[in-house]
Specification:
The chain is α+β, with helices and mostly antiparallel strands. It is built from 8 helices and 9 strands.
Length: about 280
Amino acid sequence: MRKEISLSHPDTPIQQALDLLAELDLPDETRQQLTTYLTSASDELAAAHEEKAKFVSVVTHELRIPMTSIQGYTDLMRQEAVGPVTDQQKEFLGVIRNNVERMSALVGDLSDISKLEAGRLVIDPAPLPLYGYVEEVLKDLRPQMEAKGQVLEVDVPEDLPRVVADPQRLQQIIANLLRNAHLYSSEDKPIQVKALEQNGFVRLEVMDQGVGIGEEDQQHIFQQFFRSDDAAVREEPGWGLGLRVAKLLTEAFDGHIGFESQLGAGSTFWVELPIDK
């Protein structure tokens, strides 16, 4: 069943203020003025989100067109479709391709967050096999992980119950968690991926032995654009959007997301998605 999702929630600050206002002993005229003011502020905020969503939609569309061309022509050149290419030229073309992919991911994340804020992101939940989607994501990421000397240890049973999620967004959640582990794990260190059934959910865990997260940063880890000041984190490319998007999408499917981490000892990020009944 297709539905639109947004960040709007009954417990937003303006709604909380309206609920509190209803409980206060105030003159009717004062209560009416305050209610009108808060309602107007809520409407203006919604309109601002809508305008921002329209702007981001136009910008991301205009960015995707040249990025698609750059990716396509870069691939043709690497395949020597227009003539011989030296090893060094292939290496340079690979750098171009990788950076265009980074920009493409950024554009996609910004677009998704903007649509969520405006209540315009459409999802189509359906019963899905987690195993197949994990394998699909790993197929794309394995070459990057192997190039860094990282060893994948995967324990995702094929016979797990199906989860309720949107196909594209489920793949996006898994990819964001795995990319996070890949980026912040040391070379030659294992990355473990496992899944199990637990209390009406299927729980997917991604464990690494990377830089870990300091206590002062842990409360901010799912915030938009947040990146730690830790030098080891700053050395890696990133925008501070992947985990935020993963959290919003997981919660859109009535799931849960969280992590355990220790600075210098690695992290475990997990998501729990509801089982199809």
